[in-house]
Amino acid sequence: MSQDYEHIETKLIHSGEPLPHIEGAVVVPIFQSSTYESGGGEARWDDIKYMRLGNTPNHKALQDKLAAIENAEAALVSASGMAAITASLLTCLSCGDHLLVQDNLYGGTFGFVTKDLPQYGVSTDFFDAGDPDSWEAKLKPNTRVIYVETISNPLLKVGALNQVAEFARKHGLVSMIDNTFASPLYFRPIEHGFDISLHSATKYLNGHSDVVAGVVIGSAELVDRIHQKQNRLGGSLDANSCFLMQRGLKTLALRVRQQNENALALAEFLEGHHRIEKVFYPGLPSHPDYERAKKLLEGYGGMVSFVMAAEAGIKTVKNVLNKLQLPIKAPSLGGVESLITIPAESSHRGLSAEELERAGIPETLVRVSVGIEAVEDLIEDFRSALE
Known about the structure:
Elements: H1 8-14, H2 57-69, E1 74-78, H3 81-92, E2 98-102, H4 107-116, E3 123-127, E4 143-149, H5 161-171, E5 174-178, H6 183-186, E6 196-200, E7 214-218, H7 220-233, H8 239-249, H9 252-271, E8 276-280, H10 290-296, E9 303-308, H11 314-323, E10 328-329, E11 339-341, H12 353-359, E12 366-369, H13 375-386
Parallel strand pairs: 2-3, 2-4, 4-5, 5-6, 10-11
Antiparallel strand pairs: 1-7, 6-7, 8-9, 9-12, 11-12
């Protein structure tokens, strides 16, 4: 049952929770059943309650909560962020269609649109999300979808997001946005006119590095279409992961605010350090998209990227990473613990040297997912490793 609350902090705790509580349980129990008794009155085959169809009590409670926190009509959970992205794109694109996609984005998405979509007869052009004047030239009669990221991975760019949504409406395109880095706490795409909001829920939504999941949020009609596509592709989420994600969501506001506070402090420290050449963080006035981010976002997130001074090669960079005590060298992000990685060797490893160069991702770029540790300890750890 959905409840109408004004503030996201309350929605995170109470929206979507079944009332009355199931057998009085304050926490939605895990329904560890793949199969449910059919009432015989289902309108479609995928209305029959079945775990692969993503419509069990655990799915419903979680999806209602996710829709509520982004002020949307409906939500869908999937087995991974890529499952959510691919099902959404394959729902809205057919053979002969054209896709416009942001030119700086997650390596998995890049791989899908450049290597897999062409096999389905879908063509793709990349565009600069920060340069609206250049978009019309990229548009084709068969363009159907425009795709961006709220805060790009890994250079943390913030595009002209409101204008992307307006451009889509003007030209009859479906607008999709990967909102993983911002989270619903700092940006709610449906409020800004986007058709589909996507998340790798593995990251901030779950927040504890123990679940792999994805999310699709939007209108009831469009989410239903994507849901049916996902049912055929098989990318459903299991009940236990739904339970863990429901748990993780309740602390989203607390976690993400602390990560934001820590990330800003760490970014300021790194920017002032003589061994650091450049820091990428949209909350720094030096960031090229700072003014836009300040207007669009309610916070700047917990991700920081940086490049060491020119004389530091990859061997030196890895040496610094090895000397760090707190950040764990791991490719994911958004957990309560700090994680650190080299995108060219992890999230963007599938890109060729030429593709990395075009995307502006040097081999020495370092990406930090800042956790909720004491920021004084984090800064001291980086200071020691850099020195």
